[in-house]
Amino acid sequence: VDTTASFMHELQMRWPSPVPISVEEAKQYYAEHGRPIHWYTIPEALEFARTLANDPPFHARLEPIPGAIEGLQDLAAKGFVSCYATARLDTMRKETNDWQQQYDAPAALTILRPGWYEGHHTEWKAELLDRLYPEVIGTLDNDTRIARILERKGYPGTFFLFGPGSESYEAQNGTIIPVQTWEDAVPKIQRHFGRR
After folding, report:
1. Pick from 31, 40, 22: which is nearest to 4 by CA?
2. Can you tell me the distance from the alpha carbon of 140 to that of 176, in angstroms, rounded to the nearest whole number?
3. Cα angle at 169 between 194 and 151, to 5 degrees?
4. CA 9, CA 7: separation in Å to the nearest integer?
5. CA–CA distance, 177 with 189 (Å, rounded to integer)
6. Between β-strands 176-179 and 158-162, what pairing exists: parallel, antiparallel or unpaired?
7. Closest Cα partner for 86 from 158, 196, 1?
8. pLDDT tens across 72-109, in order?
9. Are 174 and 185 in contact (CB under 8 A)?
10. Does residue 64 sit in helix, strand or coil?
């Protein structure tokens, strides 16, 4: 799901940027800095973004990233998809499952962030991936902050860093592999883990 682009669209409608910002520029900035370009200086915009992050109707409207469903289906058919891990709160389980069914995402266990977790969602996801290893030996995600946390932890699995942030990410070890699109991701994952 291209959540970042949807967030940027919603923010731009309410608090227009004084200079033109493309969605790709906004995604690149967010991937590198972990905060929305322009809007991070507007307290009302940040509060609105936090509200959207936990808003089931907003998440239900999100579209899949181009090629994602086909890529997941291809990987699942070869045995590469064991679960989904999302920073969405566990109170959005129904909406998340409905979305997966609506778009024909391959069936797999879906792990959502528990409501009791008080830390940042990136810390939760990194901790989860670290705990799941070796049952889950790799992941594909677009958040460079999670990649950095996992590198600091010495995560032994493979992190396929998806999208604009992967272009400029300077990996400290061989566990972070950049991928730009789903068409790029599927063959890289298959080559890395071996065809099944």
Report:
1. 31
2. 10
3. 70
4. 5
5. 9
6. parallel
7. 1
8. 999 999 999 999 999 999 999 999 999 999 999 999 99
9. no
10. coil
Amino acid letter for position 5 = A
Specify the pLDDT at position 195: 65
Output Rg (C-alpha) for the chain, integer angstroms.
Answer: 17
| Residue 19, amino acid | V
- Residue 175 identity: T
Cα dihedral 184, 75, 58, 148 sign: negative
pLDDT given at position 174: 81
CB atoms within 10 A of CB 144: 24
Residues 168 and 148 sit within 8 Å (Cβ to Cβ):
no
Amino acid (1-letter code) at residue 139: T
**In the predicted structure, residue 134 carries a pLDDT above the cut 90:** yes
Cα separation, 83 vs 61, whole angstroms = 22
Single-letter amino acid code for the residue at 25: E
Of 57, 92, 72, residue with least CA distance to 183: 72
Q: How far apart are CA 109 and CA 3, in angstroms?
A: 21
Assessment of whether the complete model's pTM goes beyond 0.85: yes
| Dist CA 8 CA 134 (whole Å) | 35
Q: How far apart are CA 105 and CA 193, in angstroms?
A: 21
Round to whole Å and give the CA distance between 65 and 45: 24
